[in-house]
Amino acid sequence: MEKIIISIIIICKNEELNIKRCLKSIKQERLMVTYEILLIDSCSIDNTVNIAKQFENIKIYILNPKWHHNAAIGRYVGSKLAKGKYLLFMDGDMELGKECNFTKAIEIMEADGNIIALSGILEEYIYNEKQEIIGHTEDRYRVKKLEERLDLGGVFIIKKDLLEQVGNMDITLDSEEDLDLNYRFKYMGYKLYRTPELKFIHHTKDYNSFRVLNSRFKDKRHRDLWLVTIRSVKYKCLYKHVYANRGVFMWIITLVFTLICAMLLLFKLVKPLIFICVVTVDCSLCIYKIVKNKKLKLVLMDFYHALLCLISIFQTNSNKNIKIDLRDIQKNNQF
């Protein structure tokens, strides 16, 4: 039996509209390396698993319905079950771009022992609730050459042994788990790169909508932005973290200082009020520079996102004691 080089780990939940396209893109592509496909399903209630069963040689695992489910848990479980030297993490709403050169990608990682993870070009299609395409980006991260980056998002190849060394995914995070992992990599001296030799396509929903933001707030996903922000101080990448999310953070600062201004005005504290007002105006000017070329809807979404992030400070973290037992996973292997 040939040694498996890459374990392709696909996490999904209710992806009946996308999973066939995802698996088909892998099966049709000549990867030039030995691989296995693991589908980690978070108890889908639609036809996702049945569609996946139509494909041969797919290892399907359904998470325990009693568990808390999030992307980090799906990837963590996949990494523990995988047999490959390298792991490729994908979501069920993604697909491989044509001519993904995994041989070249592995050569890049083998040539430099400090390169722990590698991603590539990400083409995006954005859909509304009616499954109509409302946006398209050919290359979200503008990958023109092999280049070091701060984070790789949710699709990347990683060396399995090094993933274990840095502590794997933080399964207590419902969002921002990829950022947290990437910051740990950088803190420990490892490198993250993007290369045009790899291409992925993402079919995603419109995250700039009140419905999606409200849903994420209900699931306490905004709270994790604060947890990762605090950790970014420890990992010595606070500035880069804030800059990457500058639209939201500038709104947050402005809202906080506006609230402080109101309190100082209420108690007639004039001198500190003047100082805070100056800071608030300065933040507002920074926001203007950021948003002046944005559409009004995106500006409003940044503001609403910031507001939800502020409120999320008061949300409690109920995920601290999550325990994963791989024996509780239901197997639906197809060979």
From TrEMBL:
SUPFAM superfamilies assigned to the protein according to its UniProt record, in alphabetical order: Nucleotide-diphospho-sugar transferases (SSF53448)
Transmembrane segments: 248-267, 273-291
Species the sequence originates in: Clostridium acidisoli DSM 12555
Keyword Transferase listed: yes
Domain of life (superkingdom): Bacteria
Residue ranges annotated for the Glycosyltransferase 2-like domain, each copy included: 7-166
Name of the protein in question: Glycosyltransferase, GT2 family
Single annotated GO MF: transferase activity
Keyword line: Membrane, Transferase, Transmembrane, Transmembrane helix
InterPro entries documented for this protein: Glyco_trans_2-like, Nucleotide-diphossugar_trans
Keyword Flavoprotein applies: no
